Inverse folding.
């Protein structure tokens, strides 16, 4: 009965959509997979209760206005230098002493998540992937790259991954169950190219690098290239771990949906493996999850945040251990409807992206160190800043990367703009 009512209500939409598909020559790509029905609940009361309606993001300051839209930022406080992964294909160098931003290193494909390789901060690790709407030569490879800070020279570390069957459901591989594959043994018979290297986290000793692959598809891309996956909601997101010393790659998580931002947690126990768990955003399911790699719960996971008000992207911790994330887009009623009724998705995927109703609202959220309690939430209408991919604490300010190609400048806001966070540590 429910489905019949929906057909009656949506029949005009279906007819118009069908006409548009024919008119524009669009259609559902054969390699875009569609997941099962998924019911999104209302935004939790505890999130609504801490929402700041004063829109402090509307007053974010802008400097280094030559900097294009970018996905991530890292800072070397001692040298007063930062690095931004620009949407123009370049890693940009930010000089806070002079206030200038300059193109620094151009990678074969677009830079995304970044971290320093070690505590010396003499090398920069960068996930690099294709960006939707851009053309790349066949030899331009997706994967993990390392840049020497002094010389600006880069080299690829991981470009290929083991060919494995998607499980179709979430799987967490405990530390003692991870199958380490030597990169030297990967060949055309047992491997595939990295589809989309999105974000990364580095162990405290610098030996292990965790890499998120939100989805696998031959034409995978960031930005507009990821929109079909956000609609399809198929569980083929993966987390990989590259061991530098052993030159091996291991699968850590599989069967999740759009694994994006990631944080590592250490056990602190003498002799125990350093990483006891990982926290990550399951972006298109509007969730944040902890997966246990060691201990009594090894191989299990728990949902820390569910039914978030928007697409939570990258994750960062501040000096107090609190977790910050960017809400790149606000959640819409349409996405609630189509996820609950996946039979609508082929029609929606057939539309040109320019016709999809996409909110301009963007925001940030802050959680306590455990990730279980929401401390702060603010949404901005997009009139001043758009598409916040992550919130990066540095000193007495919060920096706000803007994943919008037309954006210009480095946006930030004083930490003092969030008085409700005082004492929450």
């Amino acid at each position: 009965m429910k489905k019949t009512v929906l057909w009656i209500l949506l029949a005009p939409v279906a007819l118009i959509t069908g006409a548009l598909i024919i008119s524009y020559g669009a259609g559902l790509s054969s390699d875009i997979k569609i997941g099962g029905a998924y019911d999104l609940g209302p935004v939790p009361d505890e999130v609504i209760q801490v929402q700041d309606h004063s829109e402090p993001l509307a007053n974010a300051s802008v400097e280094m206005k030559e900097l294009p839209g970018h996905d991530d930022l890292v800072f070397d406080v001692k040298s007063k230098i930062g690095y931004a992964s620009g949407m123009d294909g370049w890693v940009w160098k930010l000089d806070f002493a002079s206030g200038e931003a300059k193109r620094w290193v151009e990678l074969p494909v677009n830079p995304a998540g970044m971290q320093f390789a070690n505590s010396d901060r003499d090398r920069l690790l960068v996930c690099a992937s294709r960006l939707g709407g851009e053309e790349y030569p066949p030899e331009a490879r997706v994967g993990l790259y390392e840049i020497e800070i002094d010389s600006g020279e880069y080299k690829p570390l991981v470009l290929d991954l083991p060919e494995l069957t998607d499980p179709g459901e979430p799987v967490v591989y405990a530390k003692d169950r991870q199958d380490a594959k030597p990169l030297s043994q990967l060949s055309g018979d047992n491997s595939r190219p990295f589809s989309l290297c999105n974000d990364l986290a580095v162990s405290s000793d610098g030996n292990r690098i965790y890499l998120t692959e939100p989805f696998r598809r031959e034409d995978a891309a960031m930005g507009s290239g990821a929109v079909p996956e956000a609609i399809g909601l198929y569980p083929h997101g993966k987390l990989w771990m590259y061991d530098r010393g052993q030159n091996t790659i291991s699968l850590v998580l599989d069967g999740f949906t759009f694994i994006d931002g990631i944080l590592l947690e250490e056990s602190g126990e003498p002799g125990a493996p350093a990483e006891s768990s990982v926290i990550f955003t399951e972006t298109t399911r509007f969730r944040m999850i902890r997966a246990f790699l060691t201990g009594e719960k090894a191989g299990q996971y728990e949902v820390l945040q569910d039914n978030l008000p928007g697409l939570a992207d990258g994750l960062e911790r501040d000096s107090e251990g609190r977790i910050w994330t960017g809400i790149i887009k606000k959640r819409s009623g349409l996405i609630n409807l189509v996820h609950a009724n996946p039979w609508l998705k082929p029609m929606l995927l057939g539309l040109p992206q320019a016709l999809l109703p996409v909110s301009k609202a963007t925001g940030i959220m802050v959680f306590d160190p455990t990730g279980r309690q929401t401390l702060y939430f603010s949404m901005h209408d997009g009139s001043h800043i758009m598409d916040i991919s992550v919130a990066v604490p540095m000193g007495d300010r919060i920096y706000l990367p803007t994943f919008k190609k037309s954006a210009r400048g480095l946006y930030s806001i004083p930490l003092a703009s969030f008085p409700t966070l005082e004492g929450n540590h």
